Amino acid sequence: MRLILMRHAESDWTSPAGGDRDRPLNTQGNAAATALGRWMQENAFHPDLCLCSSARRTRETLARLDIDVATHFEDTLYLADAATLAEAAETETVKTLLVIAHNPGIAEFAHQLVAPPPNHTRFDDFPPGATAVIDHVGQDTHEPAKLHTFVVPNDFK
User: Fold this and answer.
1) Which helix H or strand E contains 41, and what residues bound it?
2) For the chain, which residues make up each domain, given as ranges?
3) CA 142, chain centre distance (Å)
4) Strands, E, within the chain: which ranges?
5) Residue range 30-43, pLDDT digits in tens
6) What CATH number has the domain spanning 2-156?
C-alpha cells in the first residue's frame, strides 16, 4: 500500500468560528492546499480512499486539493495520536490511501514509518501542509516502509 500522510494546511487562529474543531483555513492555508492538490495531480498521486479528520480545517484542506476520492470523515482522527492513525490505516485494503490529520499524531506516525528520515529541514516538525508519500511493503504499518517523497507548501515557492 502507498500512504500519503498530510497535515492539514495552515488554519486561522483569529477566526471567531466556534472552538478548535471549527477553525477554518486561513488565506495562506487555502493557497497551500490548492498547490498541494496541483502537485498531487502533476505527480500522479491518486488516492483510492481518503481518511480525513472531521475538523473543519482538514475538510477544507481536502476540498482545496480538488481531487476525486472516496472519503471517510472520522471523528477519531481529530487530534489522533500515531497509534490511532496506524490502526485506521491498517484496516484499509486500497492501493493508495490518503490520511489528512493533525500534529503531533500525523508527524509521529510519519516518523515511525520512515527510517532514516529524509534530508528535509521540515520533516521533524511537519508544518501545516506537510505531506509524506510512503510506500509500504505490506498492509501492516509496523513493517518497513520507504519514503517516496516529502514536501511542504514552501517547497512550491
Assistant:
1) helix 27-42
2) 2-156
3) 18
4) 2-7, 49-53, 70-74, 96-101, 131-136, 145-151
5) 999 999 999 999 99
6) 3.40.50.1240
